[in-house]
Design brief:
- This is Putative phosphoglycerate mutase.
- Pfam families: His_Phos_1.
- It comes from Hungatella effluvii.
- One of its GO terms (molecular function) is phosphatase activity.
- By secondary structure, the chain is α/β, with parallel strands linked by helices.
- It folds into 2 domains: about 1-65; about 65-155 and about 210-290, Phosphoglycerate mutase-like (Rossmann fold), CATH 3.40.50.
- The chain contains 9 helices and 6 strands.
- A 6-stranded mixed beta sheet has the order 3-2-4-1-5-6.
- A hairpin with a 2-residue loop joins strand 5 (about 270-275) and strand 6.
- Helix 3 (about 95-110) packs across helix 4.
- It is globular.
Length: about 290
Amino acid sequence: MRQRRVMAIMMAGILCASAALTGCAKAPAKERTEAQAEVKTEAQAGESTVTQAEESTEAQAMEPAPVTLFLTRHGKTMLNTTGRMQGWCDSPLTEDGAAVAEKLGRGLKKAGITFDAVYTSDSGRAMETAELILKNNGQPEVSLQRNPKVREVCYGIYEGAMPAEAYTPAAKALGYDSVDAMMGAVMGGKLKIEDAVTAMAETDESKTAETWETAQKRVMDGIREIAGDASKRGQKQVLVVSHGMAISAAVAAIDPNAAAGELGNASITKIIYDNGTFTVESVNDMSYIEE
């Protein structure tokens, strides 16, 4: 009898213990589920934070960088020396023209200015000037990229002509007695150079000369291409070797108040491109060739 009581007590204890263990097992399972959910939420939050950081970094990397364009007019050529119209026609640099290009290269080097990219028009005088600049700036390994859009204005039938011959019909069309009178009006601010160029183009019987508007649009298309590509590539300083009238047209398009008359050979005109906007910083700077 006593043994039966002992066995009953032991069985009751076992059952109680089993029930207790079952209850204890259930509680931790619930807690584990909640903990797992918390961990998962934290992991997702962490992943979201990392993704946002990566997206922010990518956005910064993709954001266009500001670009400084150093527009320079080519060195003096044979046709410059003889005073003839030189647009799409070409002539080699003179000895003085080569020397001033070399001076510009040395002056830029002295100022600590190097280039991430170099563009030129497809005219020989522009390419020759660029090569001399890079050689004397300590960057002969930089390759030239040609862009025909930054060529000089095309003078059509008047290519290679003396200015008096080219502009006389234009002067008459604009109501002036002579080319000198017309140019005097330009210098005095009574007539815009773009009007004189357009009048000359309109008197070209071959219809191949460019009006100011046509040339300006072409040049600005080229400048936008160069600046946009440089910005995407993270190139901060770009040399563009172009031509006097072409650079003047670009300056007038960006800031009509920044015009500075005729540009000197090997002069620097600095234009800043930032997020799609152009700003003229300086025009016809000759300080780099002063030794």
